[in-house]
């Protein structure tokens, strides 16, 4: 887990993300039939491990193929977790939706990269053979 200064001047220990197999669900359970339900069962979670609120505006979440989700004016409370789903839905304080009609995260191997609003890598999580 990498922690770098954010644009707010606070250490990004303010948002060192928790990435583990329980925090990235790259393979949607069941048959990959591209229904919105199946797409939304593919997700990544980001956890703010401090007590401070962090504004993720301009931050990005990207995969190896260059698919990118840009956070709008999203405020992540201290000690809070937000789940970013692949499909469509109504954004809430705990769930965001990329509004994609196709799967983003490769089931076998991929890398999820979180970057701050200045393009600096905050954290990455890789899975599968090509990343070992």
Task: Describe the protein in words.
This is Lamin tail domain-containing protein. InterPro entries: Lamin_tail_dom, Lamin_tail_dom_sf. Residues 1-129 form the LTD domain. It comes from Streptomyces flavotricini. By secondary structure, the protein is mainly beta. It has a single domain, classed as Lamin Tail domain (Immunoglobulin-like), CATH 2.60.40. It contains one helix and ten strands. A four-stranded mixed sheet has the order 1-2-7-8, with no helix packed on it. It has a four-stranded antiparallel sheet with strand order 5-4-9-10, with no helix packed on it. The chain has a two-stranded antiparallel sheet with strand order 3-6. It is globular. It starts with 23 loop residues before the first strand and ends in a 5-residue tail after the last strand.
Total domain modules: 1
Which superfamily, in CATH terms, is the homologous superfamily?
Lamin Tail domain
Distance between the termini: 16 Å
In CATH's first tier, which class applies? Mainly Beta
SSE string, helix = H, strand = E?
EHEEEEEEEEE
Please work out how many helical segments DSSP would assign.
1
> Largest sheet, order of strands side by side?
1-2-7-8
Q: Round the Cα radius of gyration to an integer and report it.
A: 14 Å
Shape: globular
Structure class:
mainly beta
Percent range of helical residues: under 10%
Average of the residue pLDDT scores: 81
CATH topology call: Immunoglobulin-like
Beta content: 25-35%
| Poorly predicted sequence stretches spanning 5 or more consecutive residues | 1-22
How many strand units? 10
């Amino acid at each position: 887990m990498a922690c770098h200064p954010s644009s707010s001047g606070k250490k990004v220990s303010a948002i060192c993300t928790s990435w583990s197999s329980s925090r990235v669900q790259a393979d949607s359970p069941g048959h990959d039939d591209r229904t919105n339900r199946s797409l939304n069962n593919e997700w990544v979670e980001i956890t703010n491990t401090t007590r401070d609120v962090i504004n993720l505006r301009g931050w990005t979440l990207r995969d190896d193929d260059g698919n990118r989700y840009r956070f709008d004016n999203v405020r992540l409370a201290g000690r809070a977790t937000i789940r970013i789903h692949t499909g469509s839905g109504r954004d809430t304080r705990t769930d965001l939706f990329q509004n994609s009609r196709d799967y983003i995260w490769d089931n076998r191997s991929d890398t999820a990269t979180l970057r701050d609003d200045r393009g600096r890598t905050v954290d990455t999580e890789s899975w599968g053979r090509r990343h070992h």
